Amino acid sequence: MCIKSSFFKLIFLSFVLSIVVGCAGTAPRPVTTQDNISSITLEEDYLFRADYFTGVVYEYTLSSGVYEAVGLDSKGVYYQGKSDCLTTKVIETSWVLVESAKGKVVSISGCGIYLPSKANKFAKVFSVIGTEKAIREGEIGKAVSPKASTTSFSSQANTIEGGVGVGIGVGIVNAVIEAEKGRYLFVRNQQLSDKLRKKLVF
Question: In this structure, are residues 108 and 84 in contact, taking their beta carbons and an 8 Å threshold?
Fold first, then answer.
């Protein structure tokens, strides 16, 4: 069981490294009652894919439900959903993720929709940094803390040098999560279209 747990944490570490390292979240101005912005509703789950330079392809599921206006900038409004509204599934693996990760759900997180003021601009999906939860195989309801353990990952390394490398990677991931906690991070390489905006009810 311990080996299995470490294995899925290793998958999650690779997942986080492939997405968040080198990215900075955004913290828009909070919405106030004076802004008079209503919530929006996503009528049905929205699925989309994102291809990464590592060769990994993820499928994201944005859960249906009410999304409340929480922030805004000069170009649009940020609407936030439930704490587990974004699910991430591995579609294609590469050197970053082991082959056995293919087809598995690896995380859930808090999320939201960024809706540009201009109607001809595509809606974007963002996650809330610090809410990510790794998912063990067959245990969707049992989340693992996004904070990584150096001991757990180092045990998977084949050499001392590998263990040191893993330790550095874990440190980077944890530092990024802590520094950016609560900020919004757009899903990189999201395949944008007008489909998401069309599924929204105002």
Answer: yes
Whether the per-residue pLDDT at 189 is higher than 60: the answer is yes
pLDDT digits (tens, 9 = 90+) for 88-110: 999 998 887 788 889 999 899 99
- Could you tell me where the DSSP H helices lie in 21-56? none
Map out the domains of the chain as residue ranges: 26-147+182-201
d(Cα 47, Cα 195) in Å, to the nearest integer? 10
pLDDT of residue 165: 46
- CA–CA distance, 117 with 2 (Å, rounded to integer): 49
Nearest one of 33, 20, 15, 1 to 188, comparing CA atoms:
20
Structure tokens at 122: 């595509």
Q: CA-to-CA distance for 187 and 66, rounded, in angstroms?
A: 20
**Alpha carbons 105 and 94: distance in angstroms, whole number:** 16
What's the predicted TM-score (pTM) here? Answer: 0.74
Instruction: Summarize pLDDT for 124-148 with one digit per residue, the tens.
Output: 999 999 898 888 665 554 555 555 4
- Pair 150, 171: CB distance under 8 Å: yes
